[in-house]
Design goal:
2 domains, alpha/beta, 223 residues, single chain, 9 helices, Rossmann fold
């Protein structure tokens, strides 16, 4: 699979860089963006390298597989690595999805085992999203100590206005983002009162589905 990378993607995961990398993803998950793995697997510029992707859920594993990774869940990858059942070596780049959610024990084991195999780890995450359930929270300390590459390009949508609005939401500029969605997409509708909002919703439902009688549309909205 050949891919064209953005400059920020190349900076995030160069396989020929000798050090492990943190990839701070400003765009993902929280506001519905497609989980697109832009620390991409090695391509023609890195012959002989192989990418291994690990994520928390089977859904994310499938997304990573669709993006060109040989992938598995983090739990399965850790079990295999601890038992010596992985093909990691000094030509392996290990991508960890949502790495900010890793508990300290698992983060330690991934980095320690990667070091034993001579592999490179690219950890992708955002400290402002969900953290570890068990003892964790090292992502922010690691980023502060070592720095990180930044991913800010929204990949799910193509329209510039929507990309801009999603980035505003991530930076807590919710009012500006909502206004942008309202002005440029019509996806958000405002009403002064709850009653007016219900009335507007019923009218919109009836307009979109003319076959639905108006009284039935009103009942559906109220329910």
């Amino acid at each position: 699979m050949q891919m064209t990378l953005l400059d920020e993607q190349r900076d995030a995961g160069p396989v020929d860089h000798p050090e492990q990398r943190l990839c701070h993803d400003h765009r993902r998950g929280r506001y519905g963006q497609k989980p697109h793995h832009d620390c991409e697997p090695p391509g023609p510029r890195s012959p002989g390298f192989k990418a291994r992707g690990y994520a928390f859920t089977n859904r994310m594993v499938k997304n990573m597989t669709d993006d060109g990774f040989q992938s598995d869940t983090i739990a399965k990858g850790l079990i295999d690595a601890r038992r010596g059942r992985v093909d990691w070596d000094d030509k392996t780049v290990i991508y960890i999805d949502e790495a900010a959610q890793l508990k300290t024990e698992d983060l330690h084991d991934i980095l320690w085992m990667a070091k034993q195999y001579g592999s490179k780890v690219v950890a992708v995450g955002d400290r402002r999203q969900l953290g570890a359930i068990e003892r964790g929270g090292l992502w922010h300390s690691m980023e502060r100590e070592h720095g990180s590459a930044k991913l800010e390009q929204i990949m799910r949508v193509q329209e510039a206005e929507q990309k801009s609005a999603f980035n505003k939401m991530h930076k807590r500029g919710l009012q500006g983002a909502l206004k942008q969605f309202q002005d440029h997409t019509g996806a958000i509708r405002w009403s002064a009162t709850k009653a007016e909002s219900i009335q507007d919703l019923a009218e919109n439902l009836h307009a979109r589905h003319p076959a639905v009688p108006r009284n039935q549309a009103d009942r559906s909205v109220h329910q």
